[in-house]
Structures are given as structure tokens and as C-alpha cells.
Amino acid sequence: MKKAFWVFLVAALVVGGLLSPWASPDPDGLERVAEDKGFLHQGEGQEVVNSPLPDYSIPGVANSRVSTALAGAVGTLAMLAAGYGLGRAVRARAAGDGDSSHRLES
Predict the structure, then answer these.
(1) Burial 76-85 (b: 16+ CB within 10 A, else e)
(2) Is residue 18 within 8 Å of residue 11, measured between CB atoms?
(3) What span, in angstroms and rounded, lies between the C-alpha atoms of 80 and 14?
(4) CA-CA distance, 18 to 47, in Å (whole number)?
(5) Start-to-end C-alpha separation, the chain
(6) Is 17:72 a contact under the CB 8 Å cutoff?
(7) Distance (Å, rounded) from C-alpha 18 to C-alpha 70?
(8) Cα dihedral angle (47, 52, 56, 59), rounded to 10 degrees?
(9) Span 45-80, pLDDT tens digits
(10) What is the largest CA-CA distance in the chain?
(11) Phi then psi dihedrals of residue 51, to 5 deg
(12) What is the pLDDT of residues 10-40, one digit of tens each?
């Protein structure tokens, strides 16, 4: 099981970190449509929420490919951590539900 986890982690980091610089230069389809239709400027302005990875990049990293690769790796790790945490929470809740139903039965 642990070996499968590490294989999955490395595969996810390869895809998220090494292949992301070669992804589409227009990853946001809605933004592309707004640009094509001429109303992109209406969506520009003050940010409502500051993103830690704005435009799929790491602020302060000058090389765009390195910045995108790092953002892909960071995003991959963040999503894996969130999935792991959610899985643990669901598992703990299921174990807690199992205990309460057991108490009701006895």
C-alpha cells in the first residue's frame, strides 16, 4: 500500500510539475471566450480574493516555465493533502457512526 502511494505521488508530481509548462497557454476557457468576444476588460479590476498561485504561477519567479512547473507541483501537493485530509475526516466520521450505532444496539 505504501509503495502504491509513493508511485502515485511521483506520477502526480510528474504530471503536475513537469508537464504543466507545456499545457495550453489559455487554460481558462471562460477567460478565452471573454477575450474573443471583447468583454474581458469588464472582468478586470480589483481582486476579490488574493490567490497564492495567480495565473498558474509562483509570484517572484522570473522564468515562466519554472514558475508554472512549481505552481503545478504546489497545486498537486495541496490537492493531495486536501484529499488525504478529507479522506481521514470521512473515515473518522464513519468510525464514529459505527461506534454510535453499536452503542444503540447494545
Answers:
(1) beeebeeeee
(2) no
(3) 14
(4) 29
(5) 35
(6) yes
(7) 9
(8) 100
(9) 777 778 888 888 898 999 988 999 999 999 999 999
(10) 67
(11) -90, 140
(12) 999 999 888 888 877 766 788 888 889 999 8
